[in-house]
Structures are given as C-alpha cells and as structure tokens.
Amino acid sequence: MAVVKQDPELGSKGGGLEKSVAEDLDPVTLTWKDVNVYAMPKKGCCNRGQKLESPKQILSNVSGMIKPGKLMAVMGASGAGKSTMLNVLTFRNRGSLIIQGDIRINGVVVDKTKIANISAYVQQDDLFIGSLTVREHLTFRALLRMDKRKSREQRLQKVEDVIYELGLKKCADTVIGIPGRLRGISGGEMKRLSFASDLLTNPPLMFCDEATSGLDSFMAYSVIQSLKALVQKGRTIICTIHQPPSEVFELFDEVFLLAEGRVAFSGPIPDALEFFKSNGHPSPVNYNPADHFILTLAIVPGKEKDCKAKVKDICDVYEASQPYLQMKEEIKTGSAQVSQSFVENTLNNTSRYGASLLQQVKSVFWRSWITSIRDPLIVRIKFVQTIFFSVILGLIYLKTDDEYSQEDIMNINGAIFVIITNLSFTNIFSVLNVFPLEIPIFLREYGSGLYGVGVYYLSKTLVEIPFLILIPVIFMSILYWMSGLVHDANSFLTATGIAVLIGNTAASFGYLVSAAVPSVTAALAIAPALMIPFLLFGGFFLNNGSTPDYLIWLKYLSWFSYGNEMLVVNQWEDVKNINCTSSTQCIPDGNSVIKNLSFDKDNFYLDLGLLFALFLGFRLISFITLYARARRSSS
Ligand SMILES: Nc1ncnc2c1ncn2[C@@H]1O[C@H](COP(=O)(O)OP(=O)(O)OP(=O)(O)O)[C@@H](O)[C@H]1O
What we know:
The chain is α/β, with parallel strands linked by helices. It contains 23 helices and ten strands. The chain is 54% helix and 10% strand.
C-alpha cells in the first residue's frame, strides 16, 4: 500500500484547526428509521401472457443514526444500495422509486426543503466553470449562496477562510481547468474545492457521494483529512466510499455497512471488527478492514447462493443485536429535545434564493463574461476563424472593378449565400460546442438555489451581444469589399446589419438545440440534420418559386430564405446595367436578377420582420425548454 503522508497544505490537524474559523453551527443528528425502497418494474416489460413483475425491493428496513462531530463511511459491495440510501436521505434523484420510512433531523421529520436548508450534498462528479480561478469560483458562490444579511466583506473573508480550511491556498489563483483544453488544478484540489463551495454556507450536515473516487491514496487521504477537520468543529458528515486505503479508512469515526439492501453493521470501526469476528468472519492480520468488510459482504459470481446465505445470516444477527435495537430505541425517543428556534430559523427557511435579483444578475453576468473572454476555444473560434474564412472566401470571390458582367451574377449570388451559410454555421457551432457543456452546471446551481433560469439566460444573452455584433461586422468588412458587392456605404451598412441579424438568429437556433438535447455530442449530431432543410429552402439550391406547397412551412422557418432575399435585393436593386458580351439572352439589370430568383423587392421589410421574429422565437422557445428542464431536474 502506498505510504500516505499528511498534506502540508492542511496544517497540523488536517485543515488549519489552530486558526479555527468562527463557527456558529447547529449540532445536527440525522436519523433514518425503517426505510424501505422499491423500484417498480418498467411499463411494457412483459410479453402478452406473462405476469407483471412485482416491485423490486432495493432497501429493506434500513435504520441508522449519525450524531454531530461524526464522520460516517457508508460502504458495501456494488449494488448494495449505498447511492439509493444517500439519495433517500438527501431527497434527490428519487425518480419513480417508492420510498417508505422516517427521516428526521434532531427529531423533526424533514422533507426536501428542510434537508436542503440544513445540509450540503457534494456529488461524485465535480462540475465547475473551468476558466475561473479557485478564488473567483468561491467568490461567485459566496455572493450568491451566503446569508443575505452578510456584508460583501464578510463574504470575501469567508472565501479566504474556506480556502485556508481546505488547503487550497497554493492554488487559489490557479484556473480550475477544462479537461483537454485548459490545464488547471489537480483532482484532489478539485474535490476539496467541491467541499469548499458547500462550506461557504456553513452547513452543519454534509453528504458526500464517492468522496475519493478517481483520487490516488495521497489525495484521498488529504480529502478525508479535510472532512475530519470539519467534523471536529461539530459538523455531521456522511460519505459513501469505495475501498478506501486503511490510512484513509481509519479517519472515519463510524462505518455503516449495507449488503443486499439491508444493514450489516453500524457503529465505530473497532466494534465492526469485533462484530464480524464474533460471527465467524475475523479480519486477517495486517489486512485492510474496509476490504475485509466489503469482501465478506460481496456476492461472488458463481457462488451467489452461499454468499446470499452468508449475508442474510450477518444481517439477521446484526438486526437482532443489542446495539442496533438500542439505536432504534434512541431514534424513537430522541424527538423530544428539539429547540423551537432551530426548527423555525433553520429548517423552515422557505426562500428559494440566497441573493437578491440584482446580485444574481451582477454575479452571473460577471461569470459569463469571464468565461467568454477566457475560454481559448471561444476566442479562437470567434475571431481567428472569422478573419481566416473571410479572407479565404474574399480571395475566391475576388472582384476589383465596379462593372458587372453576366458571370458576376452567379458569383455575387454565390458570395451572398456563402455569407449566410458561413455566419450560420460559425454561430451555431460556437454555441453547440460550449452551451451544452455548461447546462449540467447550470442545472446543479439552479437546483442549489444560486440563481433563477431567467437570470442565467439573460446574462448569457447580454454577454454574447458584443461577440454576436463584432463577428459579422468583421466578416462583412473583409468579404463584402473583396467580393465586389455593390460599392456603396449605405448598401454595405444594410448588408452588415442583415448579417448581424442572421448570425444572431443562427445562434438562437443553436441555443434551442442545445437546451433540448442532453450533450454536446447529441447537439452536434442533431443540429446539422435540422439545418439542412432550412438551407435547401434558402433560395440558392432551389428557386424560390419552386418550393413544393406541402413544404412551404419549412421556407417560413428558414432564416437562409429571409436573409438571402434581403441581401439579394440590397445588392441588385440599384444596379441599372449588367454588361452583355455574348449573343445569347442576357440579364440586363439588377431588377431582372431579383425577378429571376423569384424574389421581390417589396418583401424586404416583411423579411426583416420575420427574421427578427424567428430570432426572438428561437430564443423564447430555448428559454422555455431550459426552464422546463431546470424545473424537472430540481423536482
Ligand atoms: N431506479 C431503479 N430502478 C431499478 N433498480 C434500481 C434503481 N435504482 C437502483 N436500482 C438497483 O438497486 C440496487 C442498488 O443500487 P445502488 O445504486 O444504490 O447501489 P450501490 O451500492 O450504490 O452500487 P455501486 O457501488 O455500484 O454504485 C442495484 O441492484 C440497482 O440496480
């Protein structure tokens, strides 16, 4: 086993105990009694004639108790029911499970809101905006999560305190990092940052799912050491953990062993060793007790019958044991000693958000802005790519004189369509590559009451405005003049304005797809398939007058179509002469070009209005989709 040293960052007792941060904690005892959990069989599971399956029992009569100042490890083999128990206790991710049982804090029966008011839940997967530094991330959380009565100075002081407490001083000004794109802090530091984020609100009760997953033994030790320091200040912490090294396991005060959905033991580690020994399962000398418990309770493939019988035996003995019965009795009688102020002030707090609306807008806007300017992918895609493509396309469509020939008609119309296509793809894909990655973070932060959906969406929209104006302006300033579109300042400004609106509409479509799908991969797969019909009915590949009646609705949803008609009209409307050198029939002027494409000058303002409506419509639907998703995920 790897030798584990104490993390020098954490101070002598694993977290700067000598500089005890002023704590004002309500001591919390969490109890759960006779918890039964059932999963209903999936609808349509059975063929005709087959009997409907009965519900599957995941937890059976599980009871437990954890007192203030204790660090409890919930352990068991895979499938034992650890995550289910944590989800039941935190009232999260319960889905369609049927749950019975009694969960109390200091004797008061709790629900989802009450448990959220008193506790923090550090989930297994750490979700952060990677372009922020550790200090910036914590400041953002402190401004949004901490008690409204705390001043800005107090919040910033608390940020410094938790940085110190969790040994994050060394990396306080390092960016968190984006895997594969931006190097940042280590896995252990990231895990400690998760705890630090939740510590800002000073929760007396903490739940941690897989506190050490993905960490090496040194990092796992430093993380659990930090938790140990937190319980020593009076907190109550309950963690699920997989196979901790023995040095890490020793840091826990209590172990709660689950097997086949039943309690196999609950109490201090030495007592657990004694219990297993007295039931014929002594731990071998110099063997990690954690491994011994898990192996003893595991259902080994091929030996299922024997293993299940062994587990049943252990659970039967434990459930009939004096300590377990005593604990259940204590749970029953413990309800008497609860303070009224604790119930009213802490458990019954009903405000959804910790910060005012203005503070939410300011903080989320600030973070969105930092994210936009720091993420190298965004800046590179948005600026370098725009300049590169506009120069390349400009060279392809290069035209230096003011006169138009018959060949120029096709080239100019091609350049116009390329402008629309390029702006659409660039803007859609810059949204699709980034926004879906941010949605899980948004959902979690919304679920934790940091800010509302409207605040988030508004801030994102405001931050994007400069980019969504600048990019089309740069693109048009280069390509418009190189490709010889009509040399007139007014026409250029009109074309640029249309380009800005096209880019914004395309970005809104990107938001709509991103809000509706679960991942970047899905967004990147679905968006092009949805765009192709809009592109086909844009008036370039199919004459505007040839759209089949039954597909006309697709034309009305195509920003390519509105943009193309407006840009074509803007280009050709005032062109009085197009040179004709061949003997075949020539197109004499700009108006004839417009007519040949089945476009109409009089549609210009109608197109403008409809394009704007499309922009607003996509935004609105994406907002509603995001809102529905947020409500669903937090229910
Ligand atoms: N919603 C559900 N529907 C059906 N079965 C479920 C559901 N949730 C969990 N289970 C089943 O209940 C059992 C316990 O699952 P749980 O995820 O709680 O175990 P675990 O101890 O956390 O396992 P692991 O360590 O592998 O994550 C498993 O057999 C699992 O397949």
